[in-house]
Amino acid sequence: MKVCIAQYRSVWEEPGENLRRAGALVENAARRGADLICFPEQFLTGWSPGASRYAEGRDGPLTHALQEMAAASGIHLLGAITEQAFPKPRNTCLAIGPEGEILASYAKTHLFTPGGEQNHFSPGDGISTFPVGACRCGIAICYDLRFAPLFRLYALAGVHCMLVPAAWPCRRQPAWEALVAARAVEIQGYVLGANTTGKTPVEEYCGGSLAADPYGGIMARAGPGEELLEVEVDPGTVDSLRHRIPVQKDFRPDLYHRLMQAGDHGP
Question: What is the mean pLDDT of the chain?
Answer without folding.
Answer: 96
